Task: structure prediction
Amino acid sequence: MTLPPRFPVSAAEIDTVVAQFYARVRQHDVLAPVFFASIPDDLARWQHHEEKIARFWRNAILHERSYSGNPQHMHSMRPMIKPEHFELWLALFDEVLAETLPESTRQSWSALAHRIGAGLRMGVVANQQKEGMPPILR
Result:
């Protein structure tokens, strides 16, 4: 049984949002160095990454089951990723959504991205805590 999409958006729209978002990431003063530490400034590597992230979103929104990976692990194991980066990431993502999609779709996708971002941020915080310290749950 195939699940219906979480909200109305096409695979092509997902691809567009992802491409526009990463084009901005590569120009961002704070986020660009964080991403370039993992993904060199090489067009083929960026295209591969964007395709993978588009599959992630198609899986999360359209239930395509085209993505396999562990975003929590990937983000929490990179010491250059700091908890404060998620606020910047989400603000930039929201800008792209606002410029690209209708209001209802933008709001739904933004809410999903913020939930996912909060979870990823918590993983980064937990992974970067000193051993034996109580967890930070905010």
Observations:
- The chain is about 65% helix and 0% strand.
- The chain has a mean pLDDT of 91.
- The CA atoms of residues 6 and 61 lie 5 Å apart.
- The chain has one domain: 11-128.
